[in-house]
Amino acid sequence: MAHRKTIFVIGGTGAQGFPVIETLAASDSDYAVKILTRDVTSDRAKRLASLPNVELVTGTFASEVDLRAGFSGSWGAFVNIDGFNCGEKAEIYWGIRSYEIALECGVKFFVWGNLDFVLKESGYNSAFRTGHYDGKGRVGEWILTQNEAAQTSQMSAALFTTGPYIQMSIAKGTPMAPTIIDGVLTWKVPLGIGAVVHVDLDDCGHYVKWLFDNNKKASGMNLKVGIAHVDYHSLAKAFTKVTGKPARYQDISLEEYWAEPSRATGAQQPAGHNSDPSDPATMTRQQNFTGFWNMWKASGGNKGLIRRDYALLDEIHPGRVKSAEEWFRRENERGRSQGLGGLWDQLESGNAPHVLKSIEDGRRGRL
Ligand SMILES: NC(=O)c1ccc[n+]([C@@H]2O[C@H](COP(=O)([O-])OP(=O)(O)OC[C@H]3O[C@@H](n4cnc5c(N)ncnc54)[C@H](OP(=O)(O)O)[C@@H]3O)[C@@H](O)[C@H]2O)c1
User: Domain range holding 245?
Assistant: First the structure.
């Protein structure tokens, strides 16, 4: 086998990292993967460790020593810093430091796991301020500026901009988790006539590998991905079409959303569980996710605040998932073939899987 280039991955055991690693480390790929994790004994870490071309290293992104150990000897890097752990302020710091240290350690191509810089996109209107988007988005802009400068000859970079995973639309404990009310699957969210740019996690593997494979062309690129702009009436219709079970979207006000007992409890806690609640820079969950819903309310029909170039995505990934219906169909079949039941059965029995590792871990992990 030809020599594989090593890619250092931060966030590899997470929802987004998993499919990226499976694709990068696959037998027909040119890469081996080195994954940073705080706990090599977690179930997810052990599953990854059993794959060929995968190595795990213990450490945290909030340590220069650990970052240097990871970037050293690596040709590439995929960095998805968990802003829900460290909070917006620390994400900006560690995002910038990870780029600087990667460059110093001789990494050749750096991919930043990004989200739309919604505050800037809105013309700096605080109604749209969403810390977990703006933190990544600011770092992303800074990286692209560095990339234009002389350092490009040492290391080049690209952004991989995602959005809410479509898996979150049926998973437990997410901002858009549905409930069954009077036998009807109900999404009660403050979306108005807007739409969410949902992303299929499985497609992330293809896109990220494409960036590494085409690193010369991709230098300076901000690859913004998504399935489609999904309005929630269409989401509910698609669910019914695939499962034959009733579903609906109920638009509610932000006040009603935050008054829901399941949300009211944690609403005043920091959005990043390890950020300091007494720091004036720390956003609460309510502040953060109010901006989040305002963003999607203003993004209907691919004509508003957050947009995507779907023709470009078709070129890069012709087999990508293109609609919520297509995704529901695939997942319905997958659940059945794995003996978990169809989507409705999983939701009705309360067995819909967790998507995020941090939720599975109870949002308690150390920095
Ligand atoms: N939820 C969404 O729909 C969505 C969509 C797009 C982007 N994002 C962004 O993605 C990021 C989270 O990634 P995810 O969605 O894959 O979540 P996740 O499933 O909860 O995974 C979190 C990942 O971050 C790693 N991590 C957390 N703290 C760490 C630390 N101090 N040092 C090293 N690694 C650490 C975890 O690794 P270990 O536990 O193994 O250490 C794990 O791999 C967030 O910034 C979020 O804003 C989320």
Answer: 166-196+228-305+322-360
